[in-house]
Amino acid sequence: MTSRATLATLLVSSLLMPLAATAATIQVAVLARDGLPLADAVVVIEPLTVSQPVAPLPAQATIQQLKMQFVPGTSVLPVGSRVRFVNLDSWDHHVRGVPAGLTGLNAGPDAGFELRLDGQAAGKDAAVVDVTLTRAGAMQLGCHLHSSMRGFIFVTDSPWAVKTDAQGMAMLRDVPEGAARLRVWHGEQIVEPAPGTLTVTSVTALTVPTQVQPRRRRP
Ligand SMILES: [Cu+2]
After folding, report:
1. Is 80 left (phi over 0), alpha (psi -120 to 50) or beta?
2. What is the CA(142)–ligand 1 centre distance, in A?
3. For residue 87, what is the domain's CATH number?
4. For the whole model, what pTM was predicted?
5. The domain containing residue 133 runs over which residues?
6. pLDDT digit string (tens) for 10-55?
7. Residue 146 falls inside a structural domain
8. Are 2 and 155 within 8 A, CB to CB?
9. Are residues 95 and 127 in the same domain?
């Protein structure tokens, strides 16, 4: 609990350091076309007040192939991250990753990746292949052998990119205060709307309606 004394000290110190950048936590609620919470939407904040863009640190992540699905179905990862594909099914998968949406149509042959993963035999280790994500942008995952398999990787060059949870909520921390651009992306979005702008203040909560109507998975 913050005592009054501590709060006063904080206020005084912030007055003494007028040049220190202040950061805020932003809470974004994303809604589907039907007004229900939209999960797996990627919320990206690009501060306009930062003269030097801040590059996010690369991460390591795993995407499983499990029961004919990519798990997680949507991943948000910084440029330079390494993804390990792990096939936990007993049959083969031939995974491909291509730039998502219209960009994919004009992308060169080296814009994506393709990998073959043997099925897991009983008592054996699962087949794994590592892929490094070299450029920013949304990628769609598919499988040459199973056309129903679909997944997404949102490769971000902003450190402020988070996907919404099952309640359609995204929380972005340590965002510089001031003007910022707001993007909302979803794998089932047909056309990405133009980014909006917002002013980030110490308390920022907003709701973003979209035209996305995801196919709900049957329970
Ligand atoms: Cu497959």
Report:
1. left
2. 8
3. 2.60.40.420
4. 0.84
5. 55-157
6. 444 444 444 446 889 999 999 999 999 999 999 999 999 877 777 8
7. yes
8. no
9. yes
